[in-house]
Design a protein that fits this description.
Blueprint (H helix, E strand, L loop, with lengths): L1 H15 L19 H5 L2 H6 L3 H23 L4 E4 L2 E3 H8 L3 H10 L9 E3 H10 L3 E4 L20 E2 L3 E6 L5 H9 L16 E6 L5 E6 L7 H9 L3 E7 L6 H13 L3 E6 L8 H9 L13 E4 L8 H15 L2 E2 L6 E10 L3 E10 L2 E2 L3 E4 L2 E9 L5 E2 L1 E2 L4 E7 L8 E5 L2 H20 L7 H11 L2 E9 L2 H14 L4 E10 L4 H10 L3 E4 L5 H10 L3 E4 L2 H15 L3 E18 L3 E14 L3 E6 L2 E14 L2 E2 L2 E3 L3 E6 L10 E10 L4
Parallel strand pairs: 1-4, 6-8, 6-9, 9-10, 10-11, 22-23, 22-24, 24-25
Antiparallel strand pairs: 2-3, 5-12, 7-8, 13-14, 13-21, 14-20, 15-19, 16-17, 16-21, 17-18, 17-20, 26-27, 26-33, 27-31, 27-32, 28-29, 28-33, 29-30, 29-32
Helix pairs in contact: 9-10, 15-18, 16-17
Length: about 650
C-alpha cells in the first residue's frame, strides 16, 4: 500500500517537472541527453548527474582552496636557521614551503636555480624574509662552540699537582736532572745524549705530593716543542750549566716562559765541575731581566748537580713553594680536557697520543676529540707503561684508540657522543683541506710561473717519517729555514710511523729519498725500495739529518765564477796570415799572458769580446806558453778575427768556487 502511494507521488512530481509520461504499452521516447542511467531506467541517477562544466567549476574551487591554504600556511611566521650556504630544497624544508614557490620567487628576481642548487646566506635571508619568516643566521664554525667547557666553579675546585716544564740549552743537563728527581735513567736510552722529543712524567714525593714534569728538547730545531711546553705548564725550571752560562736556547726558553706567563725557577746545574761559576750565570741572567732572590729579585735560584744528586731537595722545595703561592686547583668531577703533548704511530698499538689532562677526569671508554682526530679511549697508560682506569687533573697519560695522530699542542676534550665527535672532526678536516688548497692571495697563476721562471728555484723533494709527530714537525721547520731563493727542500710527505710500501711508491713517483728519523722500514717496504731504486736514509740524531740535507742543497747551488787577473797587452799591429787567420802583434804591458787563458778585448773603452780564449801565443816563430811584461808576442784568438791595432787585451783565469748554505 505504501509502495503504491510512493510511486504515485513520484509520477506526480515527474509530471510537474515536465518529465515525459507514457501510457501503458506506449513506445519509449527519449529526450534530452542520453546517459547510462537513463538507458538503465534510473531516472534518479539522471537527475543527480553533474555536467562537465559543473565538474570543472568544482575542480577550480578545490584548486583555489588548496592554493589559498598554502598561502595561508606560508604566512605562518617561523624562525628559519640559515647557515653560511644552503640548498634551495633545504631552505624550503626549514620554511615549510614548497620548493617550487621559492624557485618561482627567485625567477621573478632574475635568478634561475634548481631545487638542489646552493645559495648564500644573504639570498636565503632575502627569500625567508619575503615569505614572512624571521631569520637566525649561524656560522659553520659554531660547531666548535662548547667543545672546551666553561670555567670551573669555585665550589668544586680541589688542589692539583703542579705541572713543571724543564727548559734550557742543549746539553745543559735537563734530562739528567729529571732522571735524578725520578731516580731513573732515561738518558742512556737516548741517541747522542740529547732529548729529541718531549717527555711527560709524574713524580710522587716522599710526603705524598705529586709533581708533573715535562722535559723539552734543547736543540734549536725544537723551538715549537719548547713553546708548547711553556704553554702547558704552571712553573718553568730554567736549567743553566754553571760551566757554560746563558746560551741562545736559554734566552729563547726565557722568552717562551714570559709569553706563557709562567714563573721561572733557575736551576744552576753542573756545580760539581771544575770550571763551574754560578755567580757568572746569575750576572748573565741580569741582562735578560732575570733577577734572583740573592740580588733582591723574586726569581728563585738553586744550585744543583744532577750527577752527584746535590741540591735536589732544595729544588723540589722551591717548586712546592711556588706551587703553594700559585694555589693550583681544578675540578675533577667534570668532563676532561687538556692538551696533546706528543703523538706517534705504534706498530702494535696504532695511534698513541701523550696528553696532559688539565681539568676533569679522563676515563677509559670516553670519546675524545683532538684536532681532526677522534676515538674512544681503549686504554690509559702512564709513563711506566702501567694501565690506568682514569686520569685526573695534571696527570700525563698515553691514550690508545684515536683514528690518527693529532698534532702536538692541539687541545683535546671529551664529547658526549660519537655523532658530536664526527661532526667536529669533519668540520676541522674540511677547513684544513680548504686552507691547504686555497691559492695564494693576490697572485695569479701567470705571476707565480713568471716568478719561478725568474728565480729558477732548484727543489730537493724529500719524504720524512719520524717516530713522533713533534720530531717530524721540527725537521720540516728546520728544512724550511734552510731554503733560499735558489734552492730549497720540498716536503712531499711528513708524518709519524714506520716507513711503509705506500711511502716508497710515493717517493718513486716524486723522485725523492725517504728520511727515516728513529724509525725503520718494514721488510716489504725495503724489498720494494730495492726493486724501485728508492733511497732510504736512517737517522737517529737530528744534527746528522740536517747536516746531510744541508750538504745536498749546497751542492745544488750554482758555483761562483771568480776571475784571477794575469796581465794586459796592447795590439801594435794586426796581420792576415794564410791558413791561420788574423793574428795580433802585441806588447805585454802588465803582468803575464798565458796560452789557453781567458781574454777580454777592449776597443776605445768598449768591450768587444767578453770571454775569449787565447788559442795561439808565439814568441818570434816559437810556440810559447807564457810571455812576461815588456816583451812582444803574436796572439790568435779562438773564433774571433776582428782585431785591430790599438786594442787592449786583458788576460785572466776563470775558476769556479763552490758555494754552501
Amino acid at each position: 500500500m505504501d509502495r503504491r502511494d510512493d510511486d504515485d507521488r513520484r509520477r506526480a512530481n515527474d509530471a510537474g517537472k515536465g518529465a515525459i509520461s507514457r501510457a501503458k504499452g506506449a513506445p519509449n521516447r527519449r529526450e534530452g541527453r542520453l546517459t547510462i542511467q537513463a538507458v538503465a531506467g534510473d531516472s534518479e541517477g539522471a537527475e543527480r548527474m553533474r555536467s562537465l562544466a559543473s565538474v570543472r567549476r568544482a575542480r577550480e574551487r578545490e584548486r583555489e582552496k588548496r592554493k589559498g591554504g598554502v598561502q595561508e600556511q606560508a604566512r605562518v611566521a617561523r624562525e628559519v636557521v640559515i647557515p653560511d650556504v644552503i640548498t634551495v630544497g633545504e631552505l624550503a624544508n626549514r620554511m615549510a614551503t614548497r620548493g617550487v614557490e621559492i624557485i618561482k620567487f627567485l625567477m621573478r628576481q632574475g635568478v634561475m636555480l634548481k631545487i638542489n642548487d646552493v645559495i648564500d646566506n644573504d639570498t636565503a635571508e632575502l627569500v625567508a624574509t619575503e615569505f614572512g619568516h624571521t631569520v637566525k643566521r649561524v656560522s659553520e664554525a659554531d660547531v666548535e662552540e662548547g667543545f672546551i667547557g666553561a670555567e670551573d666553579i669555585d665550589d668544586h675546585l680541589e688542589p692539583r699537582p703542579p705541572v713543571v716544564t724543564v727548559m734550557g740549552h742543549v746539553d745543559h743537563g735537563k734530562t739528567s736532572l729529571l732522571d735524578a728527581l725520578r731516580s731513573t735513567d732515561v738518558v742512556s736510552g737516548e741517541h747522542g745524549g740529547i732529548t729529541q722529543h718531549i717527555g711527560a712524567y709524574q713524580v710522587r714525593l716522599e710526603n705524598g705530593q705529586a709533581v708533573t714534569f715535562l722535559d723539552t728538547p734543547g736543540h734549536a730545531a725544537f723551538s715549537a716543542m719548547r713553546m708548547r711546553g711553556a704553554n702547558a705548564t704552571d712553573i718553568v725550571i730554567l736549567v743553566v750549566a754553571a760551566d757554560d752560562g746563558v746560551m741562545p736556547q736559554t734566552v729563547e726558553a726565557i722568552n717562551h716562559a714570559r709569553a706563557a706567563g709562567a714563573p721561572i725557577i733557575v736551576a744552576i746545574n753542573k756545580i760539581d765541575k771544575p770550571g763551574a761559576d754560578p755567580t757568572r750565570v746569575i750576572n748573565e741572567l741580569l741582562q735578560h731581566e732575570i733577577v734572583v732572590e740573592s740580588l733582591g729579585g723574586d726569581t728563585q735560584a738553586v744550585e744543583v748537580s744532577a750527577t752527584e744528586k746535590m741540591g735536589l731537595t732544595d729544588l723540589v722545595e722551591a717548586v712546592l713553594l711556588q706551587a703553594e703561592v700559585l694555589d693550583l686547583k681544578a675540578n675533577p668531577d667534570r668532563t676532561a680536557d687538556g692538551m696533546v703533548i706528543e703523538s706517534k704511530l705504534d706498530k702494535g698499538r696504532g695511534a698513541v697520543a701523550t696528553v696532559l689532562v688539565k681539568r676533569g677526569t679522563l676515563k677509559r671508554g670516553d670519546i675524545v676529540v683532538a684536532g681532526p682526530n677522534f676515538g674512544r679511549v681503549r686504554a690509559l697508560l702512564n709513563e711506566r707503561g702501567e694501565q690506568l682506569s682514569e686520569a685526573g687533573p695534571s696527570v700525563p697519560v698515553e691514550i690508545l684508540g684515536l683514528d690518527g695522530t693529532p698534532d702536538p699542542g692541539e687541545p683535546f676534550a671529551v664529547v658526549e657522543n660519537e655523532a658530536r665527535a664526527r661532526e667536529l672532526t669533519e668540520y676541522r678536516v674540511r677547513v684544513k683541506r680548504e686552507k691547504v688548497g686555497s691559492p695564494v692571495q693576490g697572485a695569479s697563476l701567470a705571476d707565480m710561473m713568471a716568478k719561478l721562471a725568474d728565480k729558477k728555484v732548484s727543489e730537493l723533494p724529500v719524504i720524512i717519517k719520524a717516530d713522533v709527530q713533534g720530531s717530524a714537525e721540527a725537521i720540516v721547520g728546520s728544512l724550511d729555514k734552510m731554503g733560499t731563493d735558489e734552492v730549497r727542500a720540498r716536503i712531499i710527505l711528513s708524518g709519524a710511523g714506520a716507513i711503509s710500501e705506500s711511502d716508497v711508491m710515493l717517493a718513486k713517483g716524486a723522485g725523492a729519498p725517504i728520511l727515516g728519523f728513529n724509525v725503520r722500514a718494514s721488510k716489504q717496504a725495503r724489498d720494494l725500495a730495492e726493486r724501485e731504486g728508492v733511497e732510504i736514509r736512517y737517522y737517529a740524531i737530528i744534527y746528522d739529518l740536517l747536516d746531510d740535507i744541508k750538504g745536498v742543497l749546497s751542492g745544488m747551488l750554482a758555483p761562483i765564477q771568480r776571475e784571477t787577473f794575469l796581465g794586459n797587452a796592447e795590439v801594435l799591429q794586426a796581420f792576415d796570415i794564410t791558413k791561420v787567420g788574423r793574428v795580433a802583434g802585441c806588447r805585454v804591458t802588465e803582468g803575464v799572458v798565458r796560452k789557453g787563458a781567458r781574454v777580454r778585448i777592449v776597443r776605445d773603452g768598449v768591450v768587444i769580446l767578453e770571454l775569449g780564449v787565447l788559442k795561439t801565443l808565439k814568441r818570434f816563430k816559437d810556440e810559447v806558453n807564457e810571455v812576461p811584461s815588456g816583451q812582444e808576442c803574436g796572439m790568435a784568438f779562438e773564433g774571433f778575427q776582428d782585431i785591430k791595432a790599438g786594442d787592449t787585451i786583458e788576460c785572466f783565469n776563470l775558476e769556479e768556487v763552490k758555494r754552501s748554505l
